[in-house]
């Protein structure tokens, strides 16, 4: 988590960025204190986002898919003052959780699935034929 200070009193302070290293297209959470009337967060890496009013509040920004990789800076503006914080943009898209389309089946998994399907079909056919033979006699 990257942190940056600000001017004490009215205005942004205790800015934290999580995660401090984020992939293009991923979400970034920015937390700041001192923006009791709300504020704005800007960066070249993502579209401007609104920081809600509160003693300590957070906002979420989605890093652009084509954001320049490397060191990046964001600016929190509120109460007529501003403060900066740094983070790092990493190349590529973030990892997707689960198997929901993120991984294709392996050759072994495909072979096992095909074999089990064929076995189930053969078993079903035999059972139907046996039932048919027993009911007609």
Major sheet size, sense and barrel closure:
5 strands, mixed
DSSP helical segment count: 1
Helix-residue proportion: 10-25%
> Mean pLDDT, as a whole number?
84
Cα-atom radius of gyration: 28 Å
What share of the residues does DSSP label as strand, in percent?
35-45%
**How far apart lie the N and C ends?**
78 Å
In which order are the strands of the major sheet placed? Answer: 3-9-8-5-6
Q: What is the N-to-C succession of helices and strands?
A: EEEEEEEEEH
Shape: elongated
Number of strands: 9
**Based on helices, strands and strand pairing, what is the structural class?**
alpha+beta
The parts where pLDDT drops under 50 for at least 5 residues are 5-9
Describe this structure in words.
There is one protein chain. The protein has 137 residues and is an alpha+beta fold. It is 22% helix and 41% strand. The protein has a five-stranded mixed beta sheet, with no helix packed on it. A four-stranded antiparallel beta sheet has the order 1-2-4-7, with no helix packed on it. A hairpin with an 8-residue loop joins strand 1 and strand 2.
